[in-house]
Amino acid sequence: MADAGMLRFHVPEPEVRPGGTPDFSDVTIPKAGSVPRPEIDVDPRDIRDLAFSIIRVLNRAGEAVGPWAGLLSDDELLEGLRHMMTLRSFDARMQMAQRQGKTSFYMQHLGEEAVSCAFRKALAPGDMNFPTYRQAGLLIADGYPMVTMMNQIYSNQADPLKGRQLPIMYSSKEHGFFSISGNLATQYIQAVGWAMASAISNDSKIAAAWIGDGSTAESDFHSALVFASTYKAPVVLNVVNNQWAISTFQGIARGGSGTFAARGLGFGIPSLRVDGNDYLAVHAVAKWAAERARKNLGPTLVEYVTYRVGAHSSSDDPSAYRPKAESDAWPLGDPIVRLKNHLIQRGVWSDERHTQAEAEILETVIAAQREAERHGTLHAGGKPSTRDMFEGVYGEMPPHLRRQRQQAGV
Ligand SMILES: Cc1ncc(C[n+]2csc(CCOP(=O)(O)OP(=O)(O)O)c2C)c(N)n1
Ligand SMILES: [Mg+2]
Question: Which atom in ligand 1 lies closest to the alpha carbon of residue 132?
Answer without folding.
Answer: 21
